[in-house]
Design goal:
This protein is of the alpha+beta class. The protein has five helices and seven strands.
Length: 177
């Protein structure tokens, strides 16, 4: 009789552990709109982001950038010197990443992978001009735009309960066009 009770307890414990682990390992399914909204919130709360390019040796290069305000499809724009390393690196390898986060407030982060293109269009550059560029000598002749078309968006946003998988730490991700 004692062994039957122990067997039932063991069976009950195993069943309980299976149910708990299944619940813990179940990835919450987030829809595209929730992820995009959560990404936009973090992007809009940050003045700066990190642009990651790959140099000619294959080494990632990171720099702080001040992007133009984002649109709903997460096309990202920057202005920069046509003679910068980042322009050379993008022309050599257009695969980039852009990372937004405010580590002081720890609200989450957005990591965007995409394809960058250097846009040398003076008319568009003048339309997108930032006031502080006026203090940069010959900015109209020296600047180009960088356009990044987002391919994937990975988001952690605690306000929207978008958190990483407890086992793999993989963040919610959507693939764009």
């Amino acid at each position: 009789m004692k062994s039957k009770i122990s067997s039932f307890r063991l069976l009950y414990l195993l069943l309980f552990l299976v149910l708990v682990s299944t619940k813990l390992n179940a990835q919450i399914s987030y829809n595209r709109d929730t992820i995009m909204l959560a990404a936009q919130e973090i992007i809009e709360e940050n003045t700066y982001c990190a642009l990651i390019t790959i140099d000619s040796t294959g080494q990632p290069q990171v720099r702080t950038m001040n992007p133009f305000p984002s649109n709903n499809e997460l096309t990202i724009w920057f202005g920069t010197s046509r003679y910068s390393r980042k322009v050379r690196e993008i022309k050599n390898n257009p695969k980039v990443a852009v990372y937004y986060a405010d580590h002081r407030t720890a609200k989450g982060y957005v990591n965007i992978s995409g394809i960058a293109e250097v846009i040398d269009n003076k008319e568009l550059l003048l339309k997108m001009k930032r006031d502080y560029w006026e203090s940069i000598p010959n900015w109209q002749d020296n600047f180009v735009l960088i356009k990044i078309v987002s391919k994937s968006v990975e988001v952690i946003n605690y306000r929207h309960h978008l958190t990483n998988d407890p086992k793999t730490f993989k963040a919610p991700l959507i693939i764009l066009n």
